[in-house]
Amino acid sequence: MKRAKRINWFFFIFASVLAVFYAFPFVLVLINAFKEKRAVLNDPLGLPVEIRWKNFVDAINKMGYWQSLGNSLIVTIISVTAIIITSSMLAYYLARTKNKFSSVTFLVLVASMIVPFQALMIPFVGFFGQRGINFPQNQFTIAFFYVGFGVALSTFLYHGFISNIPYELDEAAAIDGASPFKTFRKIIFPMLGPVTATVAIINALWIWNDFLLPSVVLSDTDQKTLPLKTFVFYGKYTSDYGLAMAGLLLSVIPILIFFFLMQKRIISGISAGAVK
Amino acid sequence: MRFRGQSLSRFFIFASIPLAIFTLVLVIPFARGLYFSFTNWDGFTSDTFVGFDNYVKSFGDQAFWGSLVLTLLYVAASLVLVNVVAFGLALLVTIPLRGVNVLRTAFFVPNLIGGVILGLIWQFIFGQAFPRLAESTGIPIFQENWLLDTTTAFWAMVIVTVWQMSGYMMIIYVTALMSVEKDVLEAAFIDGANNAQTLFFIKLPLMAQAFTISLFLTMRNSFMAYDLNLALTNGNPYRTTELISLHVFKEAFGYGNFATGQAQAIIMFVVIAVAALAQVIISKRMEVQR
C-alpha cells in the first residue's frame, strides 16, 4: 500500500512537470504582454518589472479588436446554427428513407470528409469571387460556405443517432395527424440534444479558429475575423513584442473563457464525436 | 404511388436545401478544379485542354517533390509522436491522482487555439525565448533560432504539432481506457495478470477502435496542416519547410500558376485518400470483433 502511494506521488510530480511544459507557452505570452518592448528583448523569461496596461489599449485599437471579435462571434453563431438545422434535417431524411438515392448520398457525404479544402480552394475563389457568382462579402456568405463544408460530418453524427430512434414514433405522430416537418420538429429534434451539443461544439471550435477559408474569401478589412486580424497585426508589430504579445493574448482569451464555462460539455462532446 | 409522392415532398422539405448547399460549395468547385487541372487555366479563363501536362510539370518540379516528401516525413513523425505522447498522457491521467482534472485541462488547452495563433506564439519562443534561455543556462541546443535552419525548423513544426494535437487524442484514449469493462479487468486480475500484461493483452486490443480514430485524425490533420506552417516558418528558409498545403497556396496565389497549383492540389487529395483508405483498412483488421 505504501509502495503504491509512493508510485502515485512519482506520477503526480511527473504529470505536473509535463503540465507546466504544456502551459509554458501561454505563461510566456502572459508575462510578456505586460512588458515594454525593450524589456521583452532583454529578458523574455522574467516577470514584468512594471505592469504595462497600455499594450492592451494599443493592441485593441490597432487590431480593431472589438470589431473582429464581433465578426468571429457572428460568423460562428450563424454558421453553427445553420449547420445544426440543415444537417439534422438531412440526417433525418437519410436515416428514414431507404432507397438507392439516400444510400448513395450518404456515401458521397462520408467520402467528402477526406477532401482537403486545398483541393477546392483555387476554383472556389474563381467560382464565388468577383468574376464568378460574385457573392457579397458578409457573415451570411461565410456561414453559407461553412454549411457546405460542415454538413457532411454533422449529418454523419446525427445519422448514427437518428437510426437508433424507433420508427414507431414517427408512425404514431403521423397517425395523430402531424405533418413530416412537425414530427421532426416536435418529436425527433428534441431527442437529439446530446448530438446537437457535440455538433455545436465541434463546429464552433473549427469555425472560430479557421484561417484558410476566411483568408481567401474575405478581402474587406471590416469583415475580417479574429485569427485574420491577429495574424496581420502580429506581422506589423514584430518590432514591438510587448504589443504583439498583448494582441495574441487578446485573441486567445475569448476561447479560453468559453472553454472554462463549458469544460465538461466540450470534453464529452469531443469524445462522443470521435467515437462515432 | 402515394408513397412516392410523399417521399418526394419529404426530400424537398428535409434534404433539398442542405444538399443544394453541399453541391454548390463542395461538389461543383471540386469538379471544376478537377477539370481545370487538365487545362491551361490562368485563374480567369481556360481555353485549351492540355491533358496531363500540369501533372507532368508538377512531378518535374523539384520544389513540389521537396514539399511532398517533407509532408510525408512530417505526417509520419506526427503520427508516431502525437499518438505515443497522447497515449502516455492518457495513461497518466487515468491513474487516480489528485488534481487529475487540472492536468487534463492543461494538456488539452493548446488544442482550443487555432494553428495561426499557436504558430505565432512559438515563433516568439523559438526566436526570442529559447536563445535567451540558452544564454542564461548554457543549454546549447536552444542557442540558435530553430526556425532559421531547415532541419531544426522541421522538428520545430513537429514539436508544436505534438503539443497542439496530443491533448485532443488524449481525450479519445482516456474515453477508450475508461470504457474497458470492469469485469474483464477483474477476470484478468484473478488470473494473475500484472499491470503491464493487463495493459498490453486486455486494454490495448479492446481499445483498438480508439487507435483507428486517433491515427486517422492525426493523419488527416497533418496532411492538411497549413495554419501552423504559415505562422511558424512560412516555408522559410528558402521554401525548404513548405508543406504541401502551403506549397499549393503559394503556387496558385503567390506565383499565379493556377493550373499547376490545382493539379498539385488534386495530387494532394489523391495521396490523402489513398493513405486514409489504407490506414482504415489496416486498423479495422486489427480491431477485436465482439
UniProtKB/TrEMBL annotation, chain A:
<feature type="transmembrane region" description="Helical">
    <location>
        <begin position="187"/>
        <end position="208"/>
    </location>
</feature>
<protein>
    <submittedName>
        <fullName>Unannotated protein</fullName>
    </submittedName>
</protein>
<keyword id="KW-1133">Transmembrane helix</keyword>
<feature type="domain" description="ABC transmembrane type-1">
    <location>
        <begin position="69"/>
        <end position="262"/>
    </location>
</feature>
<dbReference type="InterPro" id="IPR000515">
    <property type="entry name" value="MetI-like"/>
</dbReference>
<keyword id="KW-0812">Transmembrane</keyword>
<feature type="transmembrane region" description="Helical">
    <location>
        <begin position="73"/>
        <end position="94"/>
    </location>
</feature>
<dbReference type="GO" id="GO:0005886">
    <property type="term" value="C:plasma membrane"/>
</dbReference>
<feature type="transmembrane region" description="Helical">
    <location>
        <begin position="140"/>
        <end position="158"/>
    </location>
</feature>
<feature type="transmembrane region" description="Helical">
    <location>
        <begin position="106"/>
        <end position="128"/>
    </location>
</feature>
<dbReference type="GO" id="GO:0055085">
    <property type="term" value="P:transmembrane transport"/>
</dbReference>
<feature type="transmembrane region" description="Helical">
    <location>
        <begin position="7"/>
        <end position="34"/>
    </location>
</feature>
<dbReference type="InterPro" id="IPR035906">
    <property type="entry name" value="MetI-like_sf"/>
</dbReference>
<feature type="transmembrane region" description="Helical">
    <location>
        <begin position="241"/>
        <end position="261"/>
    </location>
</feature>
<keyword id="KW-0813">Transport</keyword>
<dbReference type="Pfam" id="PF00528">
    <property type="entry name" value="BPD_transp_1"/>
</dbReference>
<keyword id="KW-1003">Cell membrane</keyword>
<keyword id="KW-0472">Membrane</keyword>
From TrEMBL, chain B:
<protein>
    <submittedName>
        <fullName>Unannotated protein</fullName>
    </submittedName>
</protein>
<dbReference type="InterPro" id="IPR051393">
    <property type="entry name" value="ABC_transporter_permease"/>
</dbReference>
<feature type="transmembrane region" description="Helical">
    <location>
        <begin position="105"/>
        <end position="125"/>
    </location>
</feature>
<keyword id="KW-0813">Transport</keyword>
<feature type="transmembrane region" description="Helical">
    <location>
        <begin position="263"/>
        <end position="282"/>
    </location>
</feature>
<feature type="transmembrane region" description="Helical">
    <location>
        <begin position="153"/>
        <end position="178"/>
    </location>
</feature>
<feature type="transmembrane region" description="Helical">
    <location>
        <begin position="64"/>
        <end position="93"/>
    </location>
</feature>
<feature type="transmembrane region" description="Helical">
    <location>
        <begin position="12"/>
        <end position="31"/>
    </location>
</feature>
<keyword id="KW-0812">Transmembrane</keyword>
<feature type="transmembrane region" description="Helical">
    <location>
        <begin position="199"/>
        <end position="219"/>
    </location>
</feature>
<dbReference type="InterPro" id="IPR000515">
    <property type="entry name" value="MetI-like"/>
</dbReference>
<feature type="domain" description="ABC transmembrane type-1">
    <location>
        <begin position="68"/>
        <end position="279"/>
    </location>
</feature>
<dbReference type="GO" id="GO:0005886">
    <property type="term" value="C:plasma membrane"/>
</dbReference>
<keyword id="KW-1133">Transmembrane helix</keyword>
<dbReference type="Pfam" id="PF00528">
    <property type="entry name" value="BPD_transp_1"/>
</dbReference>
<dbReference type="GO" id="GO:0055085">
    <property type="term" value="P:transmembrane transport"/>
</dbReference>
<keyword id="KW-0472">Membrane</keyword>
<keyword id="KW-1003">Cell membrane</keyword>
<dbReference type="InterPro" id="IPR035906">
    <property type="entry name" value="MetI-like_sf"/>
</dbReference>
